[in-house]
């Protein structure tokens, strides 16, 4: 090797050493990110179903406001439901990324003064309330008054919410004198937690009254199931002129109701005279529901018409029942046999309704995307109406309860 060859050799060697040193430093810096990306892009089937669903949602919706395929951040009950499920998951896993995902949603929608973006008090839409459930923990951890102010705003809505002559919350300003089963979940768990946290139990009678009215007026004496909605004025075209009830049993609406019961009972004082009544309501409707559980383990979209053409096994209602039954047993509200029904339902959800892609991301299929009554275009609550509403995979009204059910069942 001549002189110039030696010079070139040492130059190349020096360059190689520099690249190796720089490269090792860079890899050390980005290594965790690569590992995280690798983890994020491939979800292990060894994880519990709760985390598999949570990680799927985080990968598909990097910003938590994007859940439900939202393009613009807005205050919504579906985000409140799923973020609440993440909150319960984080309590078990104590993984900072779940807490960060929750906080990201709150901070996107709540400004430094506690104003809630897209929230309109004068719409008196009880669907506005569930997002407030994640704020109790955020306020307790951060002591940031913006979260307290936001909670106070939601409590103000409940204070001013229009009521039926009997004292039940209207579902919305545009739905006068109507109580929907959905509304019991939308309003009462937040109302109960706020009462327990800030009001020394002053409003528990009022909370119980919302359930009493629905139980009294919307329960079908023959089946024990509850109708989707009750119009106290009996003015709506969909309302039975004698009872005020809507025509059919919709599984998800009953799911909202049983979830409301098990969640409200978390905050009801054990010595409160209405507590036993609420537990009785839960037992009554749960006993009615198991009679309509399909042999597959799931429930149909229209609860009592499993054999009718067009009806289908629906995943959001099934997830809600699985959660309510499992939590009901775990808390001692329901007999142990309901845990068996919950596990049977969960088995069906993870087999019949589940799709798993090559990255381990999971999808719950056959979830009803939306259903309601009245409005424009008009929704008449008929059998044909419920079975023909569109379906959506991984609809948040299915994924949130699925995570909660998985946690309660330790699946």
From TrEMBL:
Keywords: Hydrolase, Signal. The keyword Methyltransferase does not apply. InterPro entries: 6-hairpin_glycosidase_sf, 6hp_glycosidase-like_sf, Glyco_hydro_88, PolySaccharide_Degr_Enz. GO terms for molecular function: hydrolase activity. Residues 1-28 form the signal peptide. Pfam families: Glyco_hydro_88. PANTHER family: UNSATURATED RHAMNOGALACTURONAN HYDROLASE (EUROFUNG). This is Glycosyl hydrolase family 88. It comes from Flavobacterium gilvum.
């Amino acid at each position: 090797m001549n002189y110039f060859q030696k010079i070139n050799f040492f130059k190349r060697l020096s360059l190689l050493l520099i690249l190796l040193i720089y490269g090792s430093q860079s890899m050390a810096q980005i290594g965790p990110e690569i590992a995280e990306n690798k983890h994020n892009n491939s979800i292990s089937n060894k994880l519990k179903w709760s985390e598999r669903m949570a990680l799927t949602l985080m990968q598909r919706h990097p910003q938590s406001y994007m859940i439900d395929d939202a393009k613009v951040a807005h205050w919504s009950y579906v985000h409140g439901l799923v973020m609440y499920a993440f909150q319960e998951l984080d309590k078990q896993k104590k993984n900072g990324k779940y807490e960060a995902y929750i906080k990201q949603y709150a901070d996107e929608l709540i400004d430094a003064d506690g104003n809630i973006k897209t929230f309109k008090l004068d719409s008196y839409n009880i669907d506005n309330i569930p997002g407030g459930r994640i704020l109790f923990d955020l306020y307790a951890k951060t002591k940031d008054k913006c979260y307290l102010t936001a909670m106070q705003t939601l409590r103000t809505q409940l204070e001013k919410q229009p009521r039926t002559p009997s004292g039940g919350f209207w579902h919305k300003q545009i739905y006068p004198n109507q109580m929907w089963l959905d509304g019991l979940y939308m309003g009462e768990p937040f109302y109960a937690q706020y009462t327990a946290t800030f009001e020394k139990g002053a409003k528990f009678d009022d909370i119980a009254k919302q359930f009493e009215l629905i139980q009294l007026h919307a329960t079908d004496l023959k089946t024990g199931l509850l109708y989707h909605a009750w119009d106290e004025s009996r003015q709506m075209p969909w309302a039975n002129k004698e009872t005020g009830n809507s025509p059919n049993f919709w599984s998800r609406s009953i799911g909202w109701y049983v979830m409301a019961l098990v969640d409200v009972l978390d905050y009801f004082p054990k010595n409160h005279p209405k507590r036993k009544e609420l537990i009785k309501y839960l037992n009554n409707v749960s006993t009615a529901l198991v009679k309509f559980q399909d042999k597959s383990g799931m429930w149909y979209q229209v609860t009592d018409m499993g054999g009718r053409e067009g009806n289908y096994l629906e995943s959001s209602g099934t997830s809600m029942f699985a959660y309510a039954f499992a939590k009901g047993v775990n808390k001692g509200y329901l007999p142990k046999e309901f845990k068996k029904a919950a596990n049977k339902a969960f088995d069906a959800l993870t087999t019949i309704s589940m799709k798993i892609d090559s990255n381990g991301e999971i999808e719950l299929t056959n979830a009803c995307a939306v259903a309601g009554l009245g409005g424009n275009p008009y929704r008449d609550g008929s059998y044909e109406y419920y079975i023909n509403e569109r379906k959506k995979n991984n609809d948040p009204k299915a994924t949130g309860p699925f995570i909660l059910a998985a946690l309660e069942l330790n699946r």
